[in-house]
Design goal:
This protein is an alpha+beta fold. It is about 45% helix and about 15% strand. It has one domain. The radius of gyration is 17 Å and the shape is globular. A three-stranded antiparallel sheet has the order 2-1-3. The model has no long low-confidence stretch (mean pLDDT about 90). Bound molecules: zinc ion (ZN). Zinc ion binds next to loops.
Length: about 120
Amino acid sequence: MMYIHYCKHCNRIFMLNGHKMICPKCTDPLTELQISYLDYVDLDMEQRQAFKETCSDDEKLGQLRTTYRMYKYSKWYKKLQSQNTSDLPITSLLSEIARQNMNKDKRINHAEKTGSQS
Ligand SMILES: [Zn+2]
């Protein structure tokens, strides 16, 4: 299932598979929106632009957002929380993991280019 999310930092609407909590581009916390995927893809370019502008307004975004709470029952959440000894917000943990993965990718790419095994 696709869900519509908004990233304030990127000022972009993201159509993402599943309920995501952090931006795939900048790893900032995402806001999940009430609008359904089908309703969103039905909008033309102009309407999408207007919708995005509405989202950039904090007060209006407060009315458009939805909070997906079921993630608290998911395996990955429980696992993450069991390691969360300093009681950080879950979005901070997720963005930290995303950043680590990005760095890992970079190192792999670098190793491939230089032929190094390390
Ligand atoms: Zn972003």
